[in-house]
Model the fold of this input.
Amino acid sequence: MHILITGSSGFVGRALAERLQSPQCPPPLAGASLTLLDVSAQAQAAPGCRTITGSLDDAATVRAAFAEPPDVVIHLASVPGGMAEQHGALARAANIDGTLRLLEAAQASGKRPRFVFASSIAVLGSDFGALVDDNTPLRPQMSYGAHKQIGEILVHDFSRRQCVDGISLRLPGIVARPPAPAGQLSAFMSGVMHALAAHEPYVCPVSPDATMWLLSVARTVDNLLHAALLSLPAQDTGLALTLPALHVSMAQLCAAVAAEYGACLQSLLRHEPDERLQAAFGRYPALHTAQGDRLGFVHDGDVPALVRRAMRKDVNAPSRSA
Done:
């Protein structure tokens, strides 16, 4: 089997590539040859792994990625939220044009690969009612969310035309991202975890009662691999679904990190809510993901388990069980 991963130098991409090359990789993905594509320079590839440095905006780069037609494409590459707002043309080229170029290359390959598209809960916007479920309308409030919705439509259309066997997964907040800036306005969700684990002071830009949907990077990898192998009935090819995630308050998250690492919240943590961030990322209601649950996708189980998975060094160990 041959797997192409775009955005392979990113937070989730690195974890995914490492899992696929680890002894814990599930069959039939174990031993697959990998093509890792990213705009940034990448680490030396392991045997059976090919790296390509280049942009999805470059047709030659995409042709090189499909020189050996993949059986599975896992499309993670994107220009994320805050950066997409600031650099509109760059974001459109990567998020829309790049996705279309990949789908066209998959069509031209004649192989009809499984195409796993990393969408985002940003497609849902932030103007919620008391509950979000599979029937909640999509109302993106930022360019990034609009781009991801367009990507979902493209994946569905190319699947309808039998060019790819697609599935779009709406990823929630993924923790714990490295401290280095990556363009996500939601980086505080991971930043507070790193600070408390290191017993360092942190000014949190949302209130203790701010609520989020969170998934550990290890569980995210589980779900991406599950999507790569999932057998879908013909009527479901091209579907888009919101992944199961924990509905967590900032107070719950901080308490779980403090309990795990012995941190003193009173001396380390101060809340100075930013209304813009609170409105965009701190008012998520209860989440029901019946479709994802039915198809076997999973979240972390509870907040302490989320923290342990998110913060442990070996994020690539299998974690199908809580």
